[in-house]
Amino acid sequence: MGRLLILIGVLFVVLGACVLLAEKFGLPLGRLPGDFAWRGKHSTVYFPLATSLLLSIFLSLLLYLLGRLRH
Fold first, then answer.
1. Is the pLDDT of residue 30 over 80?
2. How far apart are alpha carbons 17 and 9 in whole angstroms?
3. What is the 3-state secondary structure (H, E, C) of the chain?
4. In whole angstroms, what is the distance from residue 19 CA to residue 47 CA?
5. Is 54 exposed, middle or buried (0-12, 13-18, 19+ CB in 10 A)?
6. How confident is the model at residue 64 (pLDDT cuts 50, 70, 90)?
7. Does position 62 have pLDDT exceeding 80, yes or no?
8. So what's the pLDDT on residue 56?
């Protein structure tokens, strides 16, 4: 269980570094066209549709390539 938690922590650090690098190179994850935000008087609802699609495509390609390399 300890090794799994360490692995998850390392993955979060790597993911955070990737997000920071993406912002540094001009890819504003979370603020792309297609990300919706509704602001009311007392609440805000945020739905990052474009960011979710972009990350889904990237992760799908990455997992596909990793699967092809294993066989």
1. no
2. 12
3. CHHHHHHHHHHHHHHHHHHHHHHHCCCCCCCCCCCEEEECCCCEEEECHHHHHHHHHHHHHHHHHHHHHHC
4. 18
5. middle
6. very high
7. yes
8. 93
Domain assignments of the chain as residue spans, ordered by start: 1-27, 31-71
Q: Write out the two tokens for 16.
A: 């955070």
In which residue are the tokens 């945020």 written? 46
What is residue 22's predicted lDDT score, i.e. its pLDDT?
82
The two structure tokens encoding residue 3: 């090794």
CB within 8 Å of 61: residues ≥ 6 apart: none
Please check the confidence at residue 26 and state whether its pLDDT lies above 90: no
Cα 48 to Cα 68: distance, rounded to the nearest angstrom: 30
